[in-house]
Amino acid sequence: MALEVPEPLGEDKKKGKPEKLKRCIRTAAGSSWEDPSLLEWDADDFRIFCGDLGNEVNDDILARAFSRFPSFLKAKVIRDKRTGKTKGYGFVSFKDPSDYVRAMREMNGKYVGSRPIKLRKSMWKDRNLDVVRKKQKEK
């Protein structure tokens, strides 16, 4: 029976230097925080904000609604940390911009669960701390 020894995390094999761990610092409403959930998403995806979701909608239901688009990657419904109840919105991501545009046109106002959903372009990149600081310097 062979034992696998995991390689140390955070080190580059070639140089032996510690690899810089990626962190997502967000800012909104005058406060900043680290958001590790952004690391679950593809960095160069095309993301849609899905609003007005009913209480019965979960990640699977949202994913099924958008999975007919070939470059569909992921769907996530945002939930309250304490109660676990949905906050009424979520996100869907696509790899291909043409699927993103098609989904925006075809799915806006369609029923997902018991309500018609409202779709908007996701503004998640605009809340990244680096982007906010860059915009402040330009002013």
TrEMBL record:
Question: What is the recorded name of this protein?
Answer: RNA-binding protein 42
Checking InterPro entries in the record gives: Nucleotide-bd_a/b_plait_sf, RBD_domain_sf, RBM42_RBP45_47-like, RBM42_RRM, RRM_dom
Provide the assembly information: Interacts with HNRNPK.
Q: Name one GO molecular function term.
A: mRNA binding
Task: State if RNA-binding is listed as a keyword.
Answer: yes
Tell me the segments the record calls region Disordered.
1-21
An annotated GO cellular component: nucleus
Q: Which domain of life is it from?
A: Eukaryota
Q: Which PANTHER family match?
A: RNA-BINDING PROTEIN 42 (PTHR47640:SF11), TRNA SELENOCYSTEINE 1-ASSOCIATED PROTEIN 1-RELATED-RELATED (PTHR47640)
Taking the first listed entry, what is the main subcellular location of this protein, grouped into a coarse class? cytoplasm
So what family is this one in?
Belongs to the RRM RBM42 family.
List each copy of the RRM domain by range: 46-124
Biased composition annotated in UniProt, kind: Basic and acidic residues: 10-21
Q: Which UniProt keywords apply?
A: Cytoplasm, Nucleus, RNA-binding
Which gene holds the coding sequence for this protein? RBM42
Q: Which organism is it from?
A: Neovison vison (American mink)
Instruction: Indicate where this protein resides in the cell.
Output: Cytoplasm; Nucleus
What CDD domains does the record tag this protein with?
RRM_RBM42
